[in-house]
Amino acid sequence: MNQIKFGTSGWRGILAEDFTLENVRIVTQAIADFLRAEKCAEQGLVIGHDSRFMAERFARETARVLAGSGVPSFICKDDTPTPVIAYEIMRRGTAGAINFTASHNPYDYNGIKFSTAWGGPALPEVTSEIERRANAMLGEVCYRDMPLDQAVRAGLVEEIDPMDDYLKDLRRKVDLEAIGKSGMTVVFDPMYGAGRNYVDSLLVESGLLVQTINGGRDPYFGGLPPDPS
């Protein structure tokens, strides 16, 4: 069995090979144990994901395991851009976030990006400790979980929609009136990713004519790499 290894921006693996429900549960348990050791578990975590295959299922399993350790979670109802998840960490004052994304990697990958309370990726000394805890559990059923409906009733899982608060904050920082006065026509391509409905909705609000392409959800990313480079 391959070891869990966090890189510069999280743990990533090929779906159904390395990145499995069982391994996700183990890594989540390692994160929960780390938070309890750091005495910040009660602050909870935001759980988010991008538009990749099975993203919602991985997010729900994570919420169940966190609940089994008494760690509250705020689970994003739709696929959510990473900066929005970072903003929600700061807005809610959580201990961090678990974000299911494989960034620029091909469609058959997924990954866990663990962020801490400052909103950015966990530092190497944190991820190395999570690695140590996770790898010690590989091959064993040593995670604790709770049925999702029970976790919701216990107040340990809450579904959230962070879009409105994030866009409200952007409106305070971006001069939409000036953008609208430019009179531009904009073609926006979110490449089937989580940025759809964020950028284009603000541009439309500013008064621009906006044409969105590749704005649906496609876990195959239209057959193209999920990276504009």
Reconstruct the topology from this structure:
Blueprint: E1 6-7, E2 10-14, H1 21-37, E3 45-49, H2 55-68, E4 73-76, H3 82-92, E5 96-100, E6 109-116, H4 124-137, H5 148-153, E7 157-160, H6 163-173, H7 176-181, E8 185-188, H8 199-206, E9 209-212
Parallel strand pairs: 3-4, 3-5, 4-7, 8-9
Antiparallel strand pairs: 1-2, 2-6, 5-6
Brief overview, please?
The protein is an alpha/beta fold.
What does this structure look like?
The chain has 2 domains: about 5-160, Alpha-D-Glucose-1,6-Bisphosphate, Chain A, domain 3; about 175-225, 3-Layer(aba) Sandwich (Alpha-D-Glucose-1,6-Bisphosphate, Chain A, domain 3), CATH 3.40.120.10. It is about 40% helix and about 20% strand. It has helices at about 20-35, 55-70, 80-90, 125-135, 150-155, 165-175, 175-180, 200-205, and strands at about 5, 10-15, 45-50, 75, 95-100, 110-115, 155-160, 185-190, 210. The strands form 2 sheets. A 7-stranded mixed β-sheet has the order 1-2-6-5-3-4-7, with helices on both faces. α1 (about 20-35) packs across α2 (about 55-70) and α1 (about 20-35) packs across α4. The chain is globular, with a radius of gyration of 18 Å. It starts with 5 loop residues before the first strand and ends in a 17-residue tail after the last strand. About 40% of the residues are buried.
